[in-house]
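[User]
Protein folding is very new to me. Any chance you could explain this protein sequence and its structure tokens? I have pasted everything here:
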Amino acid sequence: MSTSLSTSGPASRRPADRPPTADAGPQALTAREPRVAAERLVAEMVPPPRFDSVRFDTYDPDPAQPSQAEAVTVLSGFAAGLGGAHASGAGKRRWFAKKAPAPAGPRGVYLDGGYGVGKTHLLASLWHATPAEPALKAFGTFVELTNLVGALGFQQTVQTLGGHRLLCIDEFELDDPGDTVLVSSLLSRLVEQGVALAATSNTLPGKLGEGRFASADFLREIQGLSAHFRPLRIDGQDYRHRGLPEAPAPFSDEQVAKAAYATEGASLDDFPGLLEHLARVHPSRYGALTDGITAVCLTDVGPVPDQSTALRLVVLADRLYDREVPVLASGVPFDRLFSEEMLNGGYRKKYFRAISRLTALARDAKPLVSQ
């Protein structure tokens, strides 16, 4: 499925010290205005490239954290139990068929744990291990799921996903009351049609929305969501930093620009301009924004000015991490992107995840700079 990319619109900002051979230089993300068809949103509901080859036997449980090995055992059994016919008849129901009763007890598993303990690895492994053709399994982030509803409409989304054997939702979180009601209704309808659920989050299902909005006013919806899942706690430290050196210090503007021009398929933007551009592009298009980009080079990285901007940056970081796109930057280190107020607020787990992932991508980008 192709995605149109417009290069019209505001001219992208470029560092003042860009090399004189600029005519053949890197692309600018700020010059891209992707348009994504609804069909692509559906087709891309599979594990992202970073997790395309992961399996349960490639997960490396920390011996000091028995919950990690237990999670592999539980999820392997869960996948095996999905091998039978779909509750509605392998995704297709004849008009005269009697509707199958909803299964008793939770119809899903919910992986709760800190960032970097391998929850997405396990979720993708579950998707791969479930004995059903890819067309009967869906995998996406919580943001991608709500974007799908926005693109298709509620009823069409239920119809599209209702014939699936399994729906995997990564980074499950409730940021506003509208999402709470929407997702509660959607998952209830899917469970009624026999769809099994699996999700990852940094927040227990009964605590969703806490610190973000008046979650007590939506307690019934949150409890309804919680009832669909069996919580599975995964303890451990961030594997991305386990035994690895500290994140590399930022480079100079000149080093970043030189690397961008020397790297085929790289993009080059100044960070403030990119943040402004993200406000004009819907988060559902951030993946398409990076289509064909081999490395993201950023100059003048500094603290994010406000929470709305910070949350958009979190989504971009997730898409870059999923696609294994290294990020080379000048300015402040990535652990100084978010203010203390942000890191202590209701979205702190999102920000810590973004820092963790951007740090990993910064390590990946270090070889781009000539020593």
Summary: Residues 6-22, 87-104, 208-219 have pLDDT under 50 and may be disordered. The chain has 13 helices and ten strands.
